[in-house]
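Internal QA ticket QA-208
Title: Verify multi-chain structure generation after dependency bump
Assignee: T.L.

Test input:
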Amino acid sequence: MSTTKQTIRVQAVSFLNGRPLYHTLIDPKHTPRHADGTPMFEVVEALPADCAAALTAGDCDLALVPVASYVDHPEWEVVPGIGIGCRGAVETVIVCAERPIEDATIIYLDGASRSSALLLRLLLHERGLSPQLERVEHGRGEALVRASNGTAAALIIGDAAFGLRDRFEHTWDLGAKWFETTGLPMVFAFWAARPGVLGPEHVEALQRARDRSLGKYAEAIAKQYRDELLARRDGQSTEPVLPETRYADYLRKTIRYGLETQQREGLVEYLSRCRLAGLIEIPGLHPEDQVHVSFVGAGAPEQLVAARARRTEPLDVDAILQRAAAGQRIDLAEGLFLYEYAPLMRLGEAADQRRQALHGDGNVTYIIDRNVNYTNYCVTRCKFCNFYVPPTDKTGRGYVLSREQLAQKFSETEQLGGIQILLQGGLNPELGLDYYEDLFRWTKANFSLKLHALSPTEIIHIAQIEELPVIEVLRRLQAAGMDSLPGGGAEILDDEIRNRISPFKNSTDEWLEVMRAAHALGMRSSATMVFGFQETPEHILMHMDRLRRLQDETGGFTAFIAWPFQAAGTRLKLRDDTSAFRYLRVQALARLYLDNIDNIQVSWPTLGPEIGEIALRFGANDFGSVMIEENVVSTAGAHFMMTAREIEKHIRLAGFEPRRRTMEYGIL
Amino acid sequence: MKLPKDTTRFAQIAAKVREGQPLDLDDGVFLYRYPDLLALGGLANERREALHGDKTFFNVNFHINPTNVCVADCKFCSFARLEPDAPAAYTMSVDEVRQKLVDRLDQPVTEVHIVNGLHHNLPFDYYKDCLRALKALRPDIHIKAYTAVEIHYFAEKYGLSYEQVLRELRDAGLDSMPGGGAEIFAPRARRKLCRGKADAEQWLEVHRAAHRLGIRTNCTMLYGTVETLEERVDHMLQLRELQAETGGFQTFIPLAFHADNNSLAKLPPPTGIDNLRTYAVARLMLHNIAHIKAYWIMIGIKTAQISLSFGVDDLDGTVQEEKIYHMAGAETPQALSRGDLVRLIREAGRVAVERDTLYHERWIDDGAALEGIRVDASLPYSSEAGRVSLPVV
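Actual output:
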């Protein structure tokens, strides 16, 4: 793992926009140090393409690299949360020409650039343009265009591009072009490290260095940069020197130094489009597999590093199981140990004991509700989903249910003894907060049904559309009639897995934050986990641990439900590594690890009623819902449907008394 | 439904098991009814591990059902067609039977499993010719053919003793016998289910004769129809008794009743927990039969995988063509690739062992990477190559 005491050898881009990322690293006063005083980092400045070469050659451990160079090195680990990008115009990645760029017969590419050159090739490809492309030395482009009599254009990047828009009649700002095409931010560069070199302390130091530079030193960096320009200046310089404030604004406003959900979307979109256009190839990645980026420490947050540390006492399966069965808390290390080493039957027995202690009345509950998927339009394009239709779809497969259709489904539900609607749908950009408020008010005015509605992913989507804080969205939905939240969209609550399977979807923290806010408003929710994405035991346990910590804080989760990923027909081509055996292990472990969540639900729609029945002896005390209708997993190959009578039969066969319940697990 | 848990009685039985004492009828019924499923499973697992460790056997075989025309009218059967011209009735020619193996000459199949309806007018030579044709094609292949019910039928129809029938078939190429047709021995249940078919004594007598000739056989029990738990345990005890005498049974295979296209369709099928209990009780009652097999094609691969912790040590084969259960609505894929099967065994923490029919170990899983495992479009755990659609009746 991380070599804590060593000094990390760093190469960083000397362009203005790279400086905030390492400014405080090279300042002896502020550079982060280890406890013994040795500096954490030792920085050398270089051009972007050279940084990548040095990292490849092993001449440095960490480098600020063009994102395009990551393609050849999927083994590199990217520092989370930090990037150099833009959302719209970037000012320093410019194609310039004296005549319209569409007419250029040759475009000179800046030799220092990789991501920008690739982006230009992509934009040309998508416009059906194929001028000759020629790499030239960094800084020569402008002169070549001037000498070409209007036949040439040039891609100029970095500081040399400042003010080009004033000097040429025809320019493309590639940041702006990208944003026009995709509506997404562009990321040009990020910190990448050789695998296993960085630890969480380095990531934190790098993030702090960025925050500090931007917060306090943007002006100082701008001034220093301008002074250097003036000092370098000679008679032939065409590069104008701009006022300091212009440079500072560029750092503060134009360049985006984050690498959060939106930027990750942009990044993956960029790499995916380039791949689709045949411009790049990613070694070792199956053509149908999703492009993904691995981050430093994604699989090993601090708690995990601690959990994996050497212990003074060896772990003992029997002792841990005994404590867990008695309702005592087991820690992350113990949970991992059980997941990896406890025999299934022992795990099951302990979970069964714990279930008996929590629910000793011999009852197993279920609910009659209807799963209504109000729309299947969705912008997130998750690889594991076989339900969504993109908003741009023209085949007529997309739908938004009308009030008439909803009314019919709702009254059928009431007639069948249903007490609740589980309302979930795709992330439809056409539906704003008003739509949901109206829908909920209408439901409450016309039906006596509880609304178990909108998973965190949908809440975040609405908050983004409306540019409102999540808590405000929840407050308004609650006022309109929402009763509780389903725990969907959790998949594996770990960003390393999420980035692979659903890069366009909310992050782990965002998901947890919605639940935190909903619980604070007094709304209860369930919690879910979908496994089988080739996650490690660590991912599974971290998922449970995150839920347990939030539950300690809020107490708002009513139940936990896990199920194996249903792969059929989805675009996520994974080796299917789930099984009934694994399901029972996960469920039994959840019963033990989630000592503060009352109920464990079996997932019979994905496993079948027989395993559902057996699972009641592996820690579960709830048989889920009759699900009068379910569209999502059933489009991916889960075909089990059951009536209340059948559910009751299976509950009885397992030796329990069936009882109908509410969402909050009250017996009806 | 909630039963008191007599842990003292359970502990006494567990002690008997550990001392190697045979369990009696009451013990078996008590275990069947014991509410703590995992304690029962744990005890069965203890026996399983004492006998076989983590080894979990499978073989690479395929089934041929040369005819489904049958004079018996078993209530639980969706396969048999009483008249030769009934819809979906078929009888293959010897050449067609032979062709089934020709189609698989490039596959590493070690066993052919042959079961038929009781055809009213095929000559005895037909059955021998089928065996000869297959052996001529692949002399090394093991032929496991004809249940005791068929042997009994041949003896009656062609006026031969069991021993004569078996000798002639053995000379034509029969190596061992499957365990089918036992259904449930209790006369009360048998009258309701399959009046007129070989009865318990005849079934056992055929196996006794086979064992005397050195022909190894399997044994089965059909459960989940009209029988009581006592009758299930009694069935196991009768098998145990013959085994004590001859030692010729290799494997006991509990068969869960499937009710879709037969005249017992109103019965609910045995479900998850009943299946697991049956495996566990069988493992504990049948101390003198080496193997307990879960026929995954019938109970589904998910329950079969879990059964490996409830006394089962054999998952049958990578079955290539099986008509009988699929006509009765088994919703499992018809074939699992070898890689799929090994993966499921690994996932259950066991070691896959490919065996031949007589349990010689041909290959032991060394943990190397498996081939051919990708998600199939519609069938859980089935590789693309192994995908076979169910026969339409």
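Spot checks passed. Residues 605 and 639 of chain A are 7 Å apart (CA to CA).
Status: verified.
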